[in-house]
Amino acid sequence: MLSLIGAIYIVYLAIHMLFSMKKQQTGENRSDCNFWSGFFVQVTNVKVMVFCLTALTAYVLPYTDSFWGLLIIGIFLPFTGPITNLAWIFTGVWLQKLFYNHEKTINIVMAASLLLCAISLIVGIL
């Protein structure tokens, strides 16, 4: 029963995607965002802290106890969060341009993919 409800919802999403209209991009600039606010958010990011602790305890400490090795890794690890965030930002900007320029084609492909998912859910019930 739940699969049928999910399939109906997926069909609804596919239809909505097919008939969605192109929206205007807004060039809204926010002046309250600056380097220091981004730096503060990144330094206090719990995911980065957990990643650093996990990486140190699982992958570094069992293999070395050198002070200099731990110091180098300890300095390097916090920079992996901002580097991966930058990768996501640049990829997102590139994909946004691609999706905006080819919106109708991408909407058709995505709607067809959603319909295939809904069909596979319904076939799985039968």
UniProtKB/TrEMBL annotation:
Annotated TM spans: 6-21, 33-61, 67-94, 106-125
Keyword field contains Transmembrane helix: yes
Keywords: Membrane, Transmembrane, Transmembrane helix
Superkingdom of origin: Bacteria
Protein name: Cysteine/O-acetylserine efflux protein
Species this protein is from: Clostridium butyricum
